[in-house]
Design goal:
Aldehyde Dehydrogenase, Chain A, domain 1, seven-stranded mixed beta sheet, binds nicotinamide-adenine-dinucleotide, Aldehyde Dehydrogenase, Chain A, domain 2, 2 domains, 17 helices, alpha/beta
């Protein structure tokens, strides 16, 4: 990637957002909406404004989705596959611009945002292929009759997503419900609405009006969507507190099915036989600093290391972390961007202060200098962390690693489980029996053994305890956007 290419893209995106993006309902721009500002986290300056969907706009979006759904469903998988494949090609053609929109809107490095989009492009064709093989069952109750099940779409599905992977989340959220014959109204995060709004513009030329609508805005927009009586299914990615608010709002409006991908405080448990350098590389990789500055639900931010190799691991992680210096998200060679907002940067800084106040030792992580006045925070490594400290228990959602020392495995596993979250975990050892024992003991929805962070499309991703409800990235996710209808067909009377 050359400097010239990046500079051209930055210029292209600046001129694109010089006109604030439209909010399209039924393929037409909605006039007269209030506007909110979105900032460039690399500079802390305004990037552009975007429309905020009020309750009547959300209602119009849902009504357009209701109107479009029967014809969309009637296309069948082959018809939907053709249109979604065409959309995938259009997204592929626009991927550089979408990735730069995310880098400038959300602060994650441009190459990481491009990699995000490129890794989900296949889903425009693979999800329809999987859907075509995902049927109901015939149930052999009475051989003279036919007992079978059909998977029916809900109708309109609302998807509400977080800010850390904006275009990727929009694509990954829209496809499973669409493929199964639902229409979708998606609300991107208020900090990063631009790539989803652009995606809706791209889709306008390909999908029938009302099939995919993006309503930008904040909590009020999301709440109006959740409460809408015609929305029967909600898929949410975000914090635990918002997930709970969504469950409450959904329950107060009508009977809705809700799936939740929520936060994590994920543990990595390192056994004494694990190779120190490989572990150190994994501790850094597990934080997802390069893709989103540690603002990742799956980050392994608590690292329990056996006392025999603890000090060596701390030293090796410190050496690697010191090289991860934040920079402008769209500058050549940036290895980590700023955080999404000043408020979030201050929140992370507050946790660092709390860690020091409570007695942990900051091994790495100081002032960030020589950059524009954006929302930068250097990665921080804390040693001598005790289980009682806030940095060992609360989701920071930023570049802060807490190292804990263990000598008794069951105590370490109990500490790993002693948080309300249960999203991911990682075990590092070559001892298969120990690995399986620890894997089974971890109360999480996902476990890596001798790995971190990587997602494998096809493997169910999701949390237990307060980390969520439901599984994504797998066949179960497709099915979860349908309801089962049981049919008993009497073949005689
Ligand atoms: P958030 O909960 O503040 O916001 C998420 C989305 O919900 C945004 O679009 C926001 O506008 C919307 N929203 C806020 N209040 C709402 C309301 N009352 N009704 C409806 N919608 C509302 O989360 P965030 O700060 O954007 O993201 C960070 C959190 O998301 C972290 O906790 C992180 O762990 C979690 N997350 C989880 C996953 C996962 O796959 N499990 C992935 C990414 C992020």
């Amino acid at each position: 990637m050359s400097d010239g290419h990046i500079a051209d893209l930055v210029g292209e995106v600046r001129s694109l957002v010089a006109d604030p993006p439209p909010l399209l309902v039924g393929g037409e721009p909605v006039a007269g909406l209030a506007a909110a500002q979105t900032l460039d986290p690399s500079t802390g300056t305004p990037l552009t404004t975007f429309p905020v969907a009020d309750e009547s706009t959300v209602d119009a979006a849902v009504r357009a989705a209701v109107a479009a759904q029967p014809a969309w469903h009637a296309l069948g998988v082959p018809g939907r596959r053709e249109l979604l494949a065409a959309l995938g090609e259009a997204v592929r053609a626009q991927r550089h611009q979408l990735a730069m929109l995310d880098a400038m809107d959300g602060g994650n490095p441009y190459p990481a945002m491009l990699a995000d989009i490129e890794r989900c492009l296949h889903q425009f064709v693979t999800w329809p292929a999987v859907a075509g093989m995902t049927g109901g069952d015939t149930v052999p109750i009475d051989p003279r009759d036919l007992h079978f099940t059909e998977h029916q779409p809900y109708g309109v599905v609302a998807r509400i997503v977080a800010y850390n992977h904006p275009a990727y989340f929009a694509i990954k959220a829209m496809l499973p419900p669409l493929v199964m014959g639902n229409t979708v109204v998606l609300k991107p995060a208020d900090q990063t609405p631009l790539s989803a709004l652009r995606l809706a513009e791209i889709a306008r030329d390909i999908l029938p009006p009302g099939v995919f609508t993006v309503v930008s805005g904040g909590a009020a927009t999301g709440s109006a969507l959740v409460r809408h009586p015609a929305v029967r299914r909600i898929g949410f990615t975000g914090s635990v507190s918002t997930g709970l608010a969504i469950q409450r709002a959904a329950a107060e409006s009508s009977v809705k099915h809700v799936s939740l991908e929520l936060g994590g405080k994920n543990a990595m448990i390192v056994f004494p036989d694990a190779p120190v350098e490989a572990v150190a590389a994994a501790v850094v990789a597990g934080m997802n600093l390069d893709s989103c500055g540690g603002q990742s639900c799956g980050s392994t931010s608590r690292v329990f290391v056996h006392e025999r190799i603890h000090d060596e691991v701390v030293e090796a992680v410190a050496a690697r972390l010191a090289r991860v210096v934040p920079g402008v998200a769209y500058a050549e060679g940036t290895v980590m961007g700023p955080l999404v907002s000043a408020a979030h940067r201050d929140r992370v800084a507050g946790y660092v202060e709390a860690g020091e106040r409570e007695g942990a030792r900051r091994v790495v992580g100081g002032e960030v200098t020589g950059l524009p006045p954006g929302f930068y925070h250097a990665p921080v490594l804390f040693d001598r962390v005790e289980q009682s400290m806030r940095i060992a228990n609360e989701e920071i959602f930023g570049p802060v690693i807490a190292m804990l020392r263990w000598s008794d495995l069951d105590t370490a596993l109990a500490q790993a489980n002693a948080v309300p979250y249960g999203l991911t975990g990682a075990i590092w050892t070559n001892d298969l029996a120990q690995a399986m024992y620890a894997t089974r003991a971890l109360h999480t929805g996902y476990v890596w053994v001798n790995d971190v962070s990587r997602h494998y499309w096809g493997m169910p991703f999701g949390g237990v305890k307060d980390s969520g409800l439901g599984r994504e990235e797998c066949v179960d996710e497709l099915r979860s956007y349908t309801e089962v209808k049981a049919v008993n067909l009497r073949t005689r009377w």
